[in-house]
Design goal:
31% helix; 335 residues; alpha/beta; MoaA; binds S-adenosylmethionine; GTP 3',8'-cyclase activity; binds iron/sulfur cluster; globular
Length: 335
């Protein structure tokens, strides 16, 4: 039997997030600058290489695969990759195949995703106001995303909305977004904005809206009960008693959750980041490309990398300045 991946802090690594492209059809202001330089195509892992990479992680005990980016659904032929992963769901080695998307291409791909075995999709959506949506995504159009969400629900995909809590931007929309999710039977998770990458003229501290304040906002209108439940991810959950709705909070800044981290992140060029908020990474593309006929060197490189998984990130805004800033954009490591 293959030994599982256990890091130096006794955390079992069972969750891999894979960025399949750094490109995107949006330019969200907290994620990218307007003029991004993207990686040359030759640096990207091919779909076959992505398959070998993911299959090796699955053999080493990864049970959950989340495909992300950039926008994963703008990568050419990406459905082929999803369909290739179906075999691991069928064998039982993989428990969940899922993705995080901006929703722009869901109208095209939802049926195909369902056919490949995807059952849950995270859609990132920070506002229900068309003008504000165009402002925050720079290039996005809200109706296209709402159509995509409709198509996904029709296809049988369960949707979770991820909203980045942004001061002065969606504070006033908390009730509306919450009710909209309840009406459509979608889960909702709020995320604190993290200092990932240079984003041009935007100021992180101006953007930061602590989820302690979001919770306090809920408490004005609802009875908020803490739930013990953890889903293996960083979110903590509460229930709004009046609607029965479950709301998630991902709080890298106001409440560090690294002690229970079970994940690592693969970039589209085959770098393995053991932590979203640290610079340490291992190049897995070389052991993969240099040895087309055996996965042993890749396996060794993965094990060596996991032995260097750091204890946690150093993001901190508490001194009224941004500490722990990463030079990489979220779209590089995969959100
Ligand atoms: N394009 C897809 C999407 O938007 O869902 C997948 C990639 S995107 C980088 C993944 C998630 O990261 C999105 O929910 C996005 O809102 C979030 N994100 C991007 N930059 C962030 C930042 N600086 N802080 C917190 N979340 C961020
Ligand atoms: Fe694209 Fe997602 Fe980043 Fe927005 S958050 S620019 S949709 S990768």
């Amino acid at each position: 039997m293959t030994a599982p991946l256990i890091d130096p802090f006794a955390r079992a690594i069972t969750y891999l997030r894979v960025s399949v492209t750094d490109r995107c059809d949006f330019r969200c202001v907290y994620c990218m600058s307007e003029n991004m330089t993207f990686l040359p195509k030759k640096d990207l892992l091919t779909l076959e290489e992505l398959d070998r990479m993911c299959s090796t992680f699955i053999r080493l005990g990864v049970e959950k695969l989340r495909i992300t980016g950039g926008e994963p659904l703008v990568r050419r032929d990406i459905m082929q990759f999803f369909h290739n992963m179906t075999r691991h769901l069928e064998s039982g080695a993989l428990k969940e195949l899922t993705l995080t998307t901006n929703g722009s291409q869901l109208a095209r791909f939802s049926d195909d995703l369902y056919a490949a075995g995807v059952r849950r999709v995270n859609v990132s959506l920070d506002t229900l106001d068309e003008k504000k949506f165009a402002e925050i995504t720079r290039w996005g159009r809200l109706p296209q995303v709402l159509n995509g969400i409709d198509a996904a629900q029709k296809a049988g995909l369960r949707i979770k909305i991820n909203a980045v809590a942004l001061k002065g931007f969606n504070e006033d929309e908390l009730p509306r977004i919450t009710e909209w999710c309840a009406e459509r039977d979608m889960d909702l998770t709020w995320i604190e904005v993290m200092p990932m990458g240079d984003i041009g003229n935007e100021d992180r501290l101006d953007q930061y809206w602590s989820l302690n304040d979001v919770r306090a906002e809920y408490e004005k209108n609802y009875t908020v009960t803490d739930l013990a439940e953890r889903t293996g991810g960083p979110a903590r959950y509460v229930r709004l008693e009046e609607t029965g709705q479950k709301i998630g909070f991902i709080t890298p800044l106001s409440h560090n959750f690294c002690e229970s981290c079970n994940r690592v992140r693969l970039t589209c060029t085959g770098e393995l980041f053991m932590c979203l908020g640290q610079e340490d990474m291992a190049d897995l593309r070389a052991p993969l490309r240099d040895h087309p006929d055996t996965e042993e060197p890749l396996e060794r490189a993965i094990r060596a990398a996991i032995e260097h998984k750091p204890k946690g990130h150093d993001f901190d805004y508490s001194r009224q300045k941004v500490d722990g800033q990463m030079t990489r954009h979220m779209s590089h490591t995969g959100g």
